[in-house]
C-alpha cells in the first residue's frame, strides 16, 4: 500500500487520475485530495473533485480546498480546454459530500509532520499548496516519500511555446519545491503527449457501459477538440493519469536523474522548465529526476483497465 495525497485541479485529466487512484484501493491508500485553482477557479475545482469522488462511489475521501491563486503570478485558467467550470463534457450532479473544513495547506502540514510512513505526493496541478506548506513548516520534508508531478516539459510548452500550464501558473512554487531536498519526479509534456486517446480507444471506453466510462468519455471527447486543434496530436493527452499510472505500473515509464530549473522572469519564457540529464549538469546528490520514456499505448491500455474496474464496483453496489 502506498500512502498518497493527490493534489489536483480537476480538470478532465485530473478526474481520470482521481478515478485511477480510487480504482486500486489495495495499492493506493488515498489519504485525501487537496485542490488548487488552475484549470478553473478554486470553487469549481473542489466541487469537481467531490463530483468525481461521488462518481467513483467514494464520498468518504476527504477533499480540501487549497490556495485560490498562485504565489505571485496573475490568475490563469485552462477554460479553452476544460470549459469554464473545469469539467466540460461531464453531466454530473452537484456533490452532496462536504468539503473538509480547514485549508489544504494545513492538512498537508499536519499529515506530513505526523506521517507514520512517508507519504507520496501525487501532484497534477500548480505546486502552490506544497510551496506554501514548505514555507510555513519546512520540516514537513521528513514526511514526504517523493513528489510525482505532472508538469513542465523537456521540449515545447502548451499554454505558451515555452511553458507547460502547471509550471506557467506558478513557477515560483516550482522553484521553492525544487530548492528543498525532496525526491522529485517530473512527468512533462514530452511524455504525456504520447499518452493520447484515439477514436478506437474512445469506443472501447464507451463499451464499458458504466456511468464512469460514460462521464469520462464525455469529458475526453470535448477536451480532445482543444488538443487536436492546438497541438495537432491524435486525441486528448491524458496528462495527469500518467502520475497515477507511474505509481501503479512503474514499468510503463523510464527515468533519468536530471537538473531541473524554471524561468520565473515575467516575459515570453516565464514558466519554462530547463531540464538537463547531462552528467556535467546533474550533481551526484541530485534529488530530481525526469521521465524520459513512456509506453504510451501500454499506459492507455492501463487507463482503460483501471476505469474498467468500476463495472464490477457498480455491479456489486447494485447487487447484481
Ligand atoms: O499541461 C497539462 C496540465 O495542465 C494538466 O495537469 C492539466 O490538468 C492542466 O492542469
Ligand atoms: Ca491538472
- The total strand number stands at 10
Q: Indicate the CATH class.
A: Alpha Beta
* Number of alpha- plus pi-helical segments: 12
Q: How much helicity do the residues have? A: 25-40%
Envelope shape: globular
CATH architectural type: Alpha-Beta Complex
CATH superfamily: Ribonucleoside hydrolase-like
Q: Count structural domains.
A: 1
Give a quick account of the main beta sheet: strands, pairing sense, barrel closure: 8 strands, mixed
* CATH fold naming: Inosine-uridine Nucleoside N-ribohydrolase, Chain A
Instruction: List bound small molecules.
Output: alpha-D-ribofuranose, calcium ion
Radius of gyration: 18 Å
Biggest sheet strand line-up? 3-2-1-4-5-6-10-7
In terms of per-residue confidence, which ranges show pLDDT below 50 for 5 or more consecutive residues?
none
Subunit organisation of the chains? single chain
Distance between the termini: 29 Å
The percentage of residues in β strands lies in: 15-25%
> Structural class, judged by helices and strands?
alpha/beta
Descriptive overview:
The protein has helices at about 10-20, 40-55, 80, 105-115, 130-135, 165-170, 170-180, 190, 200-205, 210-230, 240-250, 295-315, and strands at about 1-10, 30-35, 65, 120-125, 145-150, 185, 255, 260, 275, 290-295. With about 325 residues, it is of the alpha/beta class. The protein has one domain: Inosine-uridine Nucleoside N-ribohydrolase, Chain A. Strands 3-2-1-4-5-6-10-7 form an eight-stranded mixed β-sheet, with helices on both faces. A two-stranded antiparallel ribbon has the order 8-9. Strand 4 (about 120-125), helix 5 and strand 5 form a beta-alpha-beta unit. Helix 1 (about 10-20) runs antiparallel to helix 10 (about 210-230). The mean pLDDT is about 95. It binds alpha-D-ribofuranose (RIB) and calcium ion.
Amino acid at each position: 500500500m502506498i500512502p498518497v495525497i493527490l493534489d489536483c485541479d480537476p480538470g478532465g485529466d485530473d478526474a481520470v487520475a482521481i478515478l485511477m487512484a480510487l480504482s486500486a484501493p489495495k495499492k493506493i491508500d488515498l489519504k485525501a485530495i487537496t485542490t488548487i485553482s488552475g484549470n478553473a477557479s478554486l470553487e469549481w475545482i473542489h466541487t469537481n473533485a467531490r463530483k468525481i469522488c461521488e462518481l467513483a462511489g467514494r464520498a468518504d475521501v476527504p477533499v480540501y480546498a487549497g490556495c485560490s491563486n498562485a504565489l505571485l503570478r496573475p490568475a490563469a485558467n485552462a477554460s479553452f480546454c476544460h470549459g469554464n467550470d473545469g469539467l466540460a463534457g461531464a453531466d454530473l450532479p452537484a456533490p452532496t459530500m462536504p468539503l473538509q473544513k480547514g485549508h489544504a495547506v494545513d492538512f498537508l502540514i499536519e499529515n506530513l509532520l505526523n506521517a507514520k510512513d512517508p507519504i507520496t505526493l501525487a501532484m497534477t496541478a500548480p505546486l502552490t499548496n506544497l510551496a506554501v506548506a514548505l514555507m510555513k513548516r519546512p520540516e514537513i520534508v521528513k514526511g514526504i516519500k517523493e513528489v510525482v508531478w505532472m508538469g513542465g516539459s523537456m521540449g515545447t510548452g502548451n499554454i505558451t511555446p515555452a511553458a507547460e500550464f502547471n509550471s506557467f501558473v506558478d513557477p515560483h512554487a516550482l522553484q521553492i519545491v525544487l530548492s528543498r531536498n525532496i525526491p522529485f519526479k517530473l512527468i512533462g509534456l514530452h511524455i504525456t503527449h504520447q499518452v493520447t486517446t484515439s477514436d478506437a480507444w474512445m469506443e472501447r471506453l464507451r463499451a464499458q457501459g458504466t456511468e464512469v466510462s460514460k462521464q469520462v468519455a464525455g469529458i475526453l471527447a470535448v477536451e480532445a477538440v482543444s488538443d487536436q486543434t492546438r497541438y495537432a496530436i491524435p486525441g486528448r493527452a491524458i496528462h495527469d493519469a500518467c502520475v497515477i499510472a507511474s505509481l501503479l505500473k512503474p514499468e510503463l515509464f523510464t527515468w533519468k536523474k536530471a537538473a531541473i530549473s524554471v524561468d520565473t522572469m515575467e516575459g515570453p519564457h516565464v514558466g519554462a522548465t530547463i531540464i538537463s540529464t547531462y552528467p556535467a549538469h546533474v550533481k551526484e546528490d541530485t534529488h530530481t529526476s525526469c521521465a524520459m520514456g513512456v509506453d504510451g499505448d501500454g499506459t492507455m491500455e492501463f487507463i482503460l483497465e483501471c476505469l474498467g474496474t468500476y463495472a464490477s464496483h457498480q455491479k456489486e453496489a447494485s447487487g447484481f
